[in-house]
Automatic annotation (TrEMBL), chain A:
Alphabetical list of Pfam families matching this protein: DmsC (PF04976)
GO CC field: dimethyl sulfoxide reductase complex; plasma membrane
Keyword Lyase: no
Species the sequence originates in: Pelagimonas phthalicica
InterPro entries: DmsC
GO biological process per UniProt: anaerobic electron transport chain
Record carries keyword Transmembrane helix: yes
Transmembrane segments: 7-26, 32-59, 80-100, 106-126, 138-156, 232-249, 255-275
GO molecular function, one term: dimethyl sulfoxide reductase activity
Keywords carried by this UniProt record: Membrane, Transmembrane, Transmembrane helix
Name of the molecule in the record: DMSO reductase anchor subunit (DmsC)
UniProtKB/TrEMBL annotation, chain B:
Pfam family, one: Fer4_11
Record domain 4Fe-4S ferredoxin-type: where: 12-42, 73-105, 106-135
Name of the molecule in the record: Tetrathionate reductase subunit B
InterPro entries xrefs: 4Fe4S_Fe-S-bd, 4Fe4S_Fe_S_CS, ET_IronSulfur_Cluster-Binding
CDD domains membership: PsrB
Keywords, ordered alphabetically: 4Fe-4S, Iron, Iron-sulfur, Metal-binding
GO terms of molecular function: 4 iron, 4 sulfur cluster binding; metal ion binding
PANTHER family in the record: PROTEIN NRFC, PROTEIN NRFC HOMOLOG
Superkingdom of this protein's organism: Bacteria
Organism (species): Pelagimonas phthalicica
Length: 290, 249
């Protein structure tokens, strides 16, 4: 799948921002005043920036509001509702607490729940696709939740929780990377089932429909950088998990914590790039490609 | 609405005969010709006369080689367009309701005024039947020539999809699969019409007829064949001497 920058930015930063909002929402004794304001500002900047980036790859962003209509059937529409709900409820919660000093805990809990729902619906947009076997697995939502909550705890300064969740997200990530390599062949879909000719012999793509490229090949058969896949996976795990864990275990001050955050986010961006670049769509089979 | 109908009154679709298709791509051209100037936005091309032309097509013809365990390989031309699936994943993923399956005839269509161009429907389609138009930013797909099949301004013989009308080999057939007596239902039943990627559960309406088995030479040798056996099995004379001489080296 083509790793569009807008979608990588969207999933990485909205996940991080929503993770931070989750921890701010359930905190029994949240920071007030300017410290509280800063936390909420960072969280909203990440979440809103990420969600705004998701509209950049639309052919008609001016019609984006129509995406709220089909929540009964579409995960993308459900995501739009959860995101709008999470931002609205958490905005209200932050307004009462940071500006008026009134802590309405149930509002925070509801907002935290909606943040989780947004991360979940985002992951389901990818997980639902049977056409991309690497994504079509329970471990995809698990990975999105682990990264969002781990990154959020890191940003929120919950060191012990962050250590546990970042270690967990690293384990889920490693499982997702390497177990995912099996999933296309496990799915049983090949050029034989794609053409219906598999029972008659070995099917080979002899001649493509055209000499040039097309939308399908550009969007679904992205092969750039695949040969570096394993190296990038290790880089991603080192930056998103190993380095932040080492830094956190030294009981860091602010500077080291900032380095841990930058390292983690960079690692997650690499992971998201691989999430798309290494995902193989079954339509590639028709072109003799994966 | 992007929910799928429980059932459709009719099931219009195509039968594509892989035995008959000669791979001429006439259906590709006639499809593009009709659909670029009728339903919805035109099918644009980018850099059409340059070094890297690319464009939107609703129908493309692949060619595959099938190598059986024994016997010669067979070349199969393989036209592919929207299969108008009964359980169309492209419809349910649509966030805006632009993508829908018609209750009256089962045709899967895109209402381009509602399409935000997110591309998710193309991601969900296993067959590559949907292409985003680079100029218009909306999703394009086969309409089963909905603007021909009911069009009373056209002569009756033209009221079928453009690809079917134009196919010089008669490899494409249009009809109603909900009627067991229709031409397409009978053809599909007689010839063992296949679904593509049935394991994905999309329940395609369009059916593909497999190529008929080819003649083989086993057991069917002509009575005159023995007379055509090669006469000289062993080289004689000068070539016989040369053959033996060269063997010694």
């Amino acid at each position: 799948m083509h790793p569009a920058p807008s979608v990588i930015i969207f999933t990485t930063f909205s996940g991080l921002g929503l993770g931070l909002l989750f921890w701010l929402g359930i905190s029994p004794d949240p920071h007030g005043g300017w410290v509280g304001f800063t936390f909420f500002f960072i969280a909203f900047a990440l979440a809103c920036g990420g969600l705004a980036a998701s509209t950049f790859h639309l052919g008609h962003p001016e019609r984006a509001l129509k995406a709220f209509t089909q929540w009964r059937s579409s995960w993308l529409s459900r995501e739009a509702w959860s995101a709008a709900g999470a931002l609205a409820v958490m905005g209200l919660y932050a307004f009462f607490w940071v500006l008026l000093g009134i802590h309405i805990a149930p509002l925070g809990w509801l907002g935290a729940l909606l943040c989780l729902a947004t991360v979940g619906t985002t992951s389901m947009i990818y997980t639902q696709l049977k056409t991309v076997p690497r994504w079509n697995h329970w471990s995809t939502p698990a990975l999105f939740f682990a990264l969002s909550l781990g990154g959020g705890a890191l940003l929120a300064g919950y060191i012990n929780t962050a250590v546990f969740l970042i270690a967990l997200s690293g384990a889920v990530q490693a499982y997702w990377f390497w177990q995912g390599d099996q999933r296309f062949s496990d799915s049983g879909t090949d050029l034989g089932t794609a053409t219906g000719l598999g029972s008659r012999g070995k099917v080979r793509a002899f001649e493509p429909p055209h000499t040039g490229t097309n939308y399908l090949l550009n969007e679904f058969v992205y092969v750039v950088g695949r040969k570096h896949g394993d190296k990038l996976r290790l880089i991603s795990l080192a930056l998103s998990t190993v380095l932040p864990l080492l830094l956190l275990l030294t009981n860091p001050g602010h500077l080291l914590a900032v380095i841990a955050v930058i390292s983690h986010v960079t690692g997650v961006v690499v992971s998201r790039w691989l999430f798309f670049a290494q995902a193989e769509h079954v339509v590639g089979l028709y072109y003799g490609k994966r | 609405m992007t929910s799928l109908p429980e059932q459709t009154d009719r099931k219009l679709g195509l039968v594509i005969d892989l035995d008959t298709c000669v791979g001429c791509h006439a259906c590709v051209i006639s499809c593009k010709g009709w659909n670029t100037e009728n339903y919805g936005a035109p099918l644009s091309d980018q850099d059409p006369y340059g070094a890297d032309p690319v464009g939107t097509f609703l129908n493309r013809v692949h060619s595959y080689e099938v190598q059986p365990d024994q016997g010669p390989a067979q070349l199969v031309h393989f036209p592919k367009s929207c299969l108008h699936c009964d359980d169309a994943p492209c419809v349910t993923v649509c966030p805006t309701g632009a993508s829908y399956k018609r209750v009256e005839d089962g045709i899967v269509l895109v209402n381009e005024d509602n399409c935000i161009g997110c591309g998710l429907c193309a991601w969900s389609c296993p067959y590559g039947a949907r292409e985003m138009d680079a100029a218009e930013g909306v999703m394009k797909k086969c309409t089963l020539c909905v603007d021909r099949i009911y069009n009373e301004n056209l002569p009756e013989e033209d009221r079928e999809p453009s690809c079917v009308r134009t196919c010089p080999a008669g490899a494409r057939h249009f009809g109603d699969f909900s009627d067991p007596e229709s031409n397409v239902s009978k053809l599909s039943a007689e010839r063992g019409g296949m679904d593509l990627m049935p394991e994905l559960g999309t329940k395609p309406v369009n059916k593909y007829l497999p190529p008929r088995p080819k003649d083989s030479w086993q057991g069917e040798v002509d009575v005159l064949a023995p007379w055509l056996e090669p006469v000289a099995q062993e080289p004689q004379g000068f070539f016989g001497w040369l053959d033996k001489a060269l063997e010694k080296f």
